[in-house]
Amino acid sequence: MQYISDPSLVSTEYAQYGLAQEIDAYKNRRVTSDLYTRSLIGPLFYMIASGLTIGLADYFQGRVWLMLIPGLAFLLLWWQRYHHVPPTPGADHEEYVRWNRQQWYLIHLGALIWSGIATSTACIELHTSNAVIVTMITTIAFSTAASHSFAMHPQQARLCIIEFVLPPTFIYLFYAVDLRAIGIAICIYFVYLMMNLHGNAKEYRKQIETEVMLIQSRAELAQLSLTDALTGLPNRRSYEATWNHIWRIAARKNDVLGLLIIDLDFFKKVNDQYGHLAGDACLKHFAQILRQQIRRDSDVVARIGGEEFVAILPGVTNELAYSMAENLRHVLAEMPCEIATQKIYLTASIGAGIADWTKDKSPTDTFQRVDKACYQAKEQGRNVVKCA
Ligand SMILES: Nc1nc2c(ncn2[C@@H]2O[C@H](COP(=O)(O)OP(=O)(O)OP(=O)(O)O)[C@@H](O)[C@H]2O)c(=O)[nH]1
């Protein structure tokens, strides 16, 4: 099912289904775009750090060209990450899951290659040489960056930090006496990083929740702006958007499209006689009858003025529109609005008609013809159905 972004065109359940989908899509887009941008630059830093390490390592003296090997590997990794763009909007959930998995393969690959360089440097040098210091500082920097940048997937980020820190630290602790104290310090920092990642993941989740709440409030406001507060029916604004939409689809397909315009009779008298609150109760009472009588999924009812209502009836012929209007008129006349001990009887004048594709050039043309019929029903004494 496709989500229609204009809430005036959808039922409440459909709108809620659409909203849930919109929220899921938003979360997927937000997470993947963050993961993409935040992981893009990493390989370039690995490239610089590996060049520095090989350039400074005693073991590689005179073989500076060796820098090219990790340099090219990281350049290739950057190229891969650059071209692994997130799925286009509208992609399904599975596609996002697949993309995330592949992106994490690329992130782990970078972390493992770097960790390999840091670990082998420690193994070869086994003392506080410049190359070892460079690998230590950059490893700390990379793992710190991972704890900040990858908070959207804390489990993967945790694994990534372990990949960075554990292998070289193992060598510092158990094979290089000179580096043991620094190894212990790195272990303490590792614990801090894990706690920091936990906090960052919480913050990230909260941020997304806040954004989701904003999306929900926006949708609720949109829904409210299209609903009549008294009766709960769609209001005039909603009706206009819906009527135009349905009319144009029906016109394109040459489909039958019925319309009822219903105006309650002598409503001013109801207010004058029983009070405004009783008048409000009568409007709600009628709205309920309207909902009960016009109830096919494709029908739309709305309150478009003080005591004026419409029913849009796709696929309904002139005869059927007339008999539905007659039925509605009878039910209303026989079902009074009961307030305390009082019974207020209401009647309505109704214009019934269908879109005439040979005459009507716009939704307004159809509306005006049916509205004229409603006016004629008033002129004929009210409590009457008149065909357009
Ligand atoms: N209680 C209440 N009255 C409303 C509301 N909106 C409009 N009205 C009243 O509806 C009445 C409409 O009066 P008119 O337009 O003269 O129509 P009418 O008295 O129904 O007479 P006809 O339509 O000619 O039969 C006015 O008195 C409005 O104040 C509302 O939300 N609540």
Defining key terms:
388 residues, alpha+beta, Alpha-Beta Plaits, five-stranded mixed sheet, two-stranded antiparallel sheet, 12 helices, 7 strands, 9% strand, binds guanosine-5'-triphosphate, EC 2.7.7.65, membrane, transmembrane helix
Question: What's this, in brief?
Answer:
The chain contains 12 helices and 7 strands.
Write the layout of secondary structure elements.
Elements: H1 12-40, H2 42-56, H3 68-83, H4 93-125, H5 130-149, H6 154-174, H7 180-224, H8 236-253, E1 257-264, H9 267-274, H10 276-293, E2 300-303, E3 308-314, H11 318-334, E4 337-339, E5 342-344, E6 348-354, H12 363-379, E7 385-387
Parallel strand pairs: 6-7
Antiparallel strand pairs: 1-3, 1-6, 2-3, 4-5
Helix pairs in contact: 1-4, 1-7, 2-3, 2-4, 2-5, 3-4, 4-5, 4-6, 5-6, 5-7, 6-7, 9-10, 10-11
Guanosine-5'-triphosphate binds next to β1, α9 and α10.
- End-to-end separation: 36 Å
Query: Given the structure, what is the number of helices?
Result: 12
- What is the ordering of alpha helices and beta strands? HHHHHHHHEHHEEHEEEHE
Strand % is 5-15%
Provide the gyration radius in Å: 35 Å
The count of domains is: 2
Q: Largest beta sheet: what is the strand line-up?
A: 2-3-1-6-7
What this model shows, in words?
The protein has 388 residues and is α+β, with helices and mostly antiparallel strands. It folds into two domains: 7-221, no CATH class; 236-387, Alpha-Beta Plaits (2-Layer Sandwich). It is built from twelve helices and seven strands. The strands form two sheets. It has a five-stranded mixed β-sheet with strand order 2-3-1-6-7, with helices on both faces. A two-stranded antiparallel sheet has the order 4-5. Strand 2 (300-303) and strand 3 (308-314) form a beta hairpin. Helix 10 (276-293) crosses helix 11 (318-334). The radius of gyration is 35 Å and the shape is elongated. 34% of the residues are buried. The structure holds guanosine-5'-triphosphate. Guanosine-5'-triphosphate (GTP) binds next to strand 1, helix 9 and helix 10.
